[in-house]
Amino acid sequence: MVRWSPVMMRMAMVSAALLCVALIGLVVDDRLITGAPAWLKPAKFGASGAIYLVTMTWMMRDLPRTRTVRTATWLTAWILALETSVIALQAARGTTSHFNIDTPLDTAIYSGMGIGIATVWIMSVVLLWKHLRTPAADRTLALALRVGLALNILGAGVGWTMTQPRAEQFAAMQRNERPFVAGSHTVGAPDGGAGLPLTQWSREHGDLRIPHFIGMHAWQLLPLLLLGLRRLRTATNDGAERTIMLVASSACAALFIAAFVQALAGHPLIPPPTS
Which candidate, 202, 234, 249, 222, places its Cα nearest to that of 58? Predict the structure, then answer.
């Protein structure tokens, strides 16, 4: 019998509720923040938080409920729900949640978010380590989940490169100019330029959100690929399934690395048309 983590499922529902609030905000609130609809980021983080928590509790269903696992579960669930709530709060205030150190309140919020996400990242490493040490009845599914979580941890780690102040931001701070911003999604230009539909990924410069997204969501893609493959096949062949998952895992890892290198080089995902 599958054992779902109650706290993770409750906090996943909180994230889903915040997603609903953000979708309403997208309809009724026409304000823009750094060129994007004010409620777009809360909507994306609400959806991402709910998916993350459901995936995590699915992965942990066979783990023994040790004190370490319970602590990691509790911290991850509550922190992600609080992070999404704070992002929605900043959208309601009409300002950015990430990289914003313009006022003492903004600095406190951004610093708290950083500490929270670093804690979730460490808990993810702990849970991966526990999963690797626990025998799995379905070894191919365990492979998909473990490789996916490892890529998720790397993808989340890309966030650290976004938080590093750019040279021009250091210069602005020294000139005592406002607003103060430390870090950015975009490489080679400030955030807020022309972006792709829905994601707002930069169309003109490198964007670290792309490898971040690939790494974070390979965790859902790989097991879903395996489950879809099993529904299509009439006979079980563990060797073929494992080979396909190894190829798919390698492809996701290569795509993540390529997107990261491209973003750091300042190149957009889709080159702009030449005139």
Answer: 222
Amino acid at 157: G
Q: DSSP state, 259? A: H
Q: Where are the alpha helices (DSSP H) in the chain?
A: 6-28, 40-59, 67-93, 104-132, 139-162, 167-174, 209-232, 238-264
pLDDT tens-place string over residues 210-220: 999 999 999 99
Residues 6+ apart with CB under 8 A from 198: none
Report the amino acid identity of residue 78.
W
**Which phi and psi angles does 187 have, rounded to 5°?**
-110, 120
Task: Give, as one character, the DSSP assignment of residue 187.
Answer: E
The greatest distance separating any two alpha carbons of the chain, rounded to the nearest whole angstrom, comes to 68
Using H for helix, E for strand and C for coil, what is the string for 72-101?
HHHHHHHHHHHHHHHHHHHHHHCCCCCCEC
β-sheet bridge partners, residue 186 = 207
Predicted local distance difference test score (pLDDT) of residue 267: 93
> Which tens digit of pLDDT belongs to each residue from 33-77?
988 899 999 999 999 999 999 999 988 887 888 999 999 999 999
10 Å Cβ neighbour count for 105? 12
Single pTM value for the model = 0.88
Tens-digit pLDDT profile for residues 133-145: 998 888 899 999 9
Nearest-Å Rg of the Cα atoms of the chain is 20
